[in-house]
């Protein structure tokens, strides 16, 4: 498949243009030639030298990531930016990035993946960002104690790292809101929605007291671990389009 066709298909599926004024990430094709044929796509959470080199070793023509190399533009190509961009160009490797558009997708997105793990029903958009949302909320199939919720997340996301939980909510959890990665700033919205538990990737110091005073559980399941779902799902979609893919798992432990 031609790079331009793959780019256009992804942009349409992910509604990339809708996030142009909302996201610091330069979503879409960040690096790539005008004309290229894509036979193999590597997918990873982060566009780092490690994943770029791994994609080159896999013989990929395109690396698709959640976190790219351009955040609000690149003024100077030095240091880390130079190392990453040089590795891409030297490897004749294009880079496609989807940050908030991938978070937002109701079926392929990161929050959707976490919601699938928990079996959330009656899902609604959650995590307002201007006119868009970047998360989901819903109800568990049946009430669950906080230990059961933790275990479901740990078993699927990162058994070694585990889940850190601020246990301030009710004894039985019925409703859950999800914003993956660094989504803890949406705790206020979770409180307003009246959910029993809020799942995100990582926390900030003030969240402890806010969660305690609001009486809501907060589960910190890892920034990396909560954001593998989107790129994996995109890989399955691209496979259906007839292009071979491979997922590069390079966990950060954070």
Distance between the termini: 35 Å
- The CATH topology of the largest domain comes to Udp-n-acetylmuramoylalanyl-d-glutamate--2,6- Diaminopimelate Ligase, Chain: A, domain 1
Which word captures the global form? elongated
Q: How many domain regions?
A: 2
Mean pLDDT over the residues:
96
Largest sheet strand order: 5-6-8-9-10-7
Structural class, from helix and strand content? alpha/beta
Helicity range:
25-40%
Which percent band covers the strand fraction?
25-35%
Write the CATH homologous superfamily of the largest domain: NIF3 (NGG1p interacting factor 3)-like
Explained architecture:
With 254 residues, this protein is of the alpha/beta class. 33% of the residues lie in helices and 26% in strands. The chain has helices at 3-14, 49-57, 79-90, 100-104, 110-118, 146-156, 187-193, 207-214, 229-240, and strands at 28-31, 40-46, 62-67, 94-97, 121-129, 132-145, 164-166, 172-178, 197-200, 217-220, 244-247. Strands 5-6-8-9-10-7 form a six-stranded mixed beta sheet, sandwiched between helices. The protein has a five-stranded mixed beta sheet with strand order 1-4-3-2-11, with helices on both faces. Strand 5 and strand 6 form a beta hairpin. The radius of gyration is 19 Å and the shape is elongated.
């Amino acid at each position: 498949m031609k790079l331009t066709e793959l780019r256009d298909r992804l942009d349409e599926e992910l509604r990339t243009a809708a996030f142009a004024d909302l996201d610091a990430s330069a979503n879409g094709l960040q690096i790539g030639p005008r004309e290229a044929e894509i036979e193999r796509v590597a997918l990873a959470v982060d566009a780092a030298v490690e994943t770029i080199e791994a994609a080159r070793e896999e013989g990929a023509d395109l690396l698709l990531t959640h976190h790219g190399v351009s955040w609000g533009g690149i003024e100077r190509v030095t240091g880390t930016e130079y190392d990453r961009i040089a590795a891409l160009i030297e490897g004749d490797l294009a880079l496609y990035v989807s940050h908030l558009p991938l978070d937002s997708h109701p079926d392929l997105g990161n929050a959707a993946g976490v919601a699938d793990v928990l079996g959330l029903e009656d899902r609604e958009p959650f995590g307002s960002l201007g006119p868009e949302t970047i998360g989901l909320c819903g109800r568990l199939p049946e009430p669950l104690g906080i230990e059961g919720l933790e275990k479901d997340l740990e078993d699927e996301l990162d058994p070694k790292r585990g889940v850190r939980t601020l246990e301030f909510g009710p004894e039985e959890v019925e409703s859950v809101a999800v914003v993956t990665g660094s989504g803890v700033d949406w705790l206020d919205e979770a409180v307003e929605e009246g959910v029993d538990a809020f799942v995100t990737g990582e926390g900030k110091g003030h969240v402890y007291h806010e969660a305690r005073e609001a009486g809501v559980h907060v589960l910190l399941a890892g920034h990396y671990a909560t954001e593998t779902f989107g790129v994996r799902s995109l890989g399955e979609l691209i496979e259906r389009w007839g292009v071979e893919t491979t997922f590069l798992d390079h966990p950060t432990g954070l």
